[in-house]
């Protein structure tokens, strides 16, 4: 069990939960440092939103403990949601349509005096760059402005931990980039400790300090984005994170016959480190698909081999597909052995 006196903003230990007899969370362990943004990243149905609801007190786990800011809130004792000092931003923001922006932000400040409440509301409006918007109603705001109001409302009571459920799913790509940059700046100013969930890897990479990859109700790997991409803990993580080509030693020999792999297991070959040459002595090619992302081409090469079907690589140039019958592959780095 986590030490209640630790300096962590949040510590979750051995958390398990079943719903209608189906295991949803399986002995999950998670830690959040103060001032850190942590992403729960995983496919739909992996249990990531359920984790948020357990932390917030909206669901009661079957086993395990949750410590928030050094205080046990779930485990041997269970503290109700309103006493946990946790902020929660829902996917649809859940603003009160009949209340002004100022009234929405002040909703959780009923214990403050009138003057202190007004001061805190104004402070939060300035924090999210909405000074002068206090008298407006939610329907008079853009989607990005509504999100900032939801953020201000969640931060107003000065929560120990802020939870966000798919915070960027309802806004377009350009606004998403802008909002992520704005929120990172706001969180840094306010020293916010935050957990957010998403299934979008790009959002996790752009926003989170650390990422917890969730697969089938548990944390499959925890670490910084570059660590997850370059050193996946399992084949399942590598495939979900789309780290690159995961090959057995036998499959790797098909592409890179001069490469000596002395250990059995699965090896990660990054697409950006693969080079090719067209030659009559190489591996026979069946098909090549290329997608341009504005900077480079993602290339998927289907090969004619019983042990290996395809290989992914990156190219700065469009390959002349019709002229390619056989390829020689080179790997210009050391492949990573996935140690499961």
UniProtKB/TrEMBL annotation:
> What highest taxon heads this organism's lineage?
Bacteria
Q: Which UniProt keywords apply?
A: ATP-binding, Cell membrane, Ion transport, Iron, Iron transport, Membrane, Nucleotide-binding, Transport
For molecular function, the Gene Ontology terms on record are: ABC-type ferric iron transporter activity; ATP binding; ATP hydrolysis activity
A single Gene Ontology CC term: membrane
Q: List the InterPro entries hit by this protein, alphabetically.
A: AAA+_ATPase, ABC_SmlMolc_Importer, ABC_transporter-like_ATP-bd, ABC_transporter-like_CS, ABC_transpr_FbpC, P-loop_NTPase
Query: Any idea where the ABC transporter domain is?
Result: 10-241
What's a GO biological-process term for it?
quaternary ammonium group transport
Task: Identify the PROSITE patterns for this entry.
Answer: ABC_TRANSPORTER_1, ABC_TRANSPORTER_2
What Pfam families does the record tag this protein with? ABC_tran (PF00005)
Q: What is this protein called?
A: ABC transporter ATP-binding protein
Which species is this record about?
Parashewanella curva
- Lineage of producing organism: Bacteria, Pseudomonadati, Pseudomonadota, Gammaproteobacteria, Alteromonadales
């Amino acid at each position: 069990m986590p030490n209640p006196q630790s300096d962590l903003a949040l510590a979750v230990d051995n958390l398990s939960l079943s719903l209608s007899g189906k295991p949803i969370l399986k002995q999950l362990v998670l830690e959040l440092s103060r001032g850190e943004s942590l992403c729960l990243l995983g496919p739909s149905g992996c249990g990531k939103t359920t984790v948020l609801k357990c932390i917030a007190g909206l669901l009661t786990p079957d086993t395990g403990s949750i410590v928030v800011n050094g205080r046990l809130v779930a485990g041997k004792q269970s503290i109700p949601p309103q006493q946990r000092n946790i902020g929660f931003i829902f996917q649809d923001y859940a603003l009160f349509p009949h209340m002004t922006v100022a009234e929405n932000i002040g909703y959780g400040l009923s214990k403050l005096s009138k003057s202190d409440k007004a001061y805190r509301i104004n402070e939060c409006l300035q924090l999210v760059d909405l000074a002068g918007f206090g008298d407006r109603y939610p329907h008079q705001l853009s989607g990005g402005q509504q999100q900032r109001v939801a953020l201000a409302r969640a931060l107003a009571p000065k929560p120990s931990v802020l939870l966000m459920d798919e915070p960027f799913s309802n806004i377009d790509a350009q606004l998403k980039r802008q909002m992520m940059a704005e929120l990172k700046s706001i969180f840094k100013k306010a020293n916010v400790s935050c957990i957010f969930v998403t299934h979008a890897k790009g959002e996790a990479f752009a926003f989170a300090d650390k990422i917890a990859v969730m697969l089938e109700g548990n944390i499959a790997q925890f670490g910084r984005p570059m660590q997850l991409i370059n050193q996946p803990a399992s084949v399942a993580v590598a495939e979900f994170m789309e780290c690159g080509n995961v090959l057995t030693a036998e499959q790797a020999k098909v592409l890179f016959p001069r490469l000596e792999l002395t250990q059995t297991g699965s090896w990660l070959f990054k697409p950006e480190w693969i080079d090719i040459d067209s030659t009559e002595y190489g591996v026979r090619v069946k098909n090549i698909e290329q997608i341009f992302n504005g900077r480079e081409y993602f290339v998927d090469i289907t090969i004619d081999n019983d042990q290996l079907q395809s290989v992914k690589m990156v190219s700065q140039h469009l390959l002349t597909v019709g002229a390619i019958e056989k390829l020689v592959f080179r790997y210009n780095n050391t492949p990573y052995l996935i140690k499961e």
